[in-house]
Amino acid sequence: MSRLVFFLLLLAILAVGAHLWLSGPVEKSDFAAREKNREEVRIVAVTPPSVAARRAEDSRKTVATLAGAACVEFSGIAAGDAFRAREAFAALQAGQRISERRVEEITRYWVFVPAVRDRRAAETRMAEIRKLGVSDLSIRPDNAISLGVFSTEDAARRFLSSIEAKGVRGAEQGPFTRDLRELVMLVREPDTELVARLTLLQRDFTGSQLRAVPCPAQ
Questions:
Q1: Model-level pTM greater than 0.70?
Q2: Cα–Cα 20 to 30 A to 33, which of 44, 181, 193, 201?
Q3: Which residues are CB-neighbours of 11 under 8 A, at least 6 positions away?
Q4: Beta carbons of 215 and 145 less than 8 angstroms apart
Q5: Helix H segments across 36-92?
């Protein structure tokens, strides 16, 4: 029995050797051959040394100007960059030393009757206005009555004049929608390292500005 096992193992070893011999020499691994689309690799841009030197000098001057500032204001962040800016400032890990301020612009105006005490009173007032020939009305959640929304203040003013000529009293015109135009970040008591990081961060937001400002009351 043991002799049979021996011959079976010998046959197995010979079979493996024959397979390796018939397969030819083993090629060495060529990792370069695994690269994909090597011919499509392109260098996107190279910053000229003169430009890099100028940027470095500008950064040095900015850091020197802001060093020791009680507060530093990072302004000019476009509305479309607000989310990215918030993430970038969160990565600075300055906690409550960083605050933001929204700079908004009015994009819609409306003509309205100020809020009344309850829904029933708003419905009664709306019925009175309809009798005067004004039909496009709606009651807001706070029981104010909207008589129209307009893209410009002048259009809202003209409409208000027209319904007043019909006898509508107590209506007003004012801002309806405010959209974010710019985000301003404020950093309190930044040290030199944080000022340097702000200076580098400024390059990622076109049109942004850094300046030392008095700290507002908390």
A1: no
A2: 44
A3: none
A4: no
A5: 49-66, 82-90
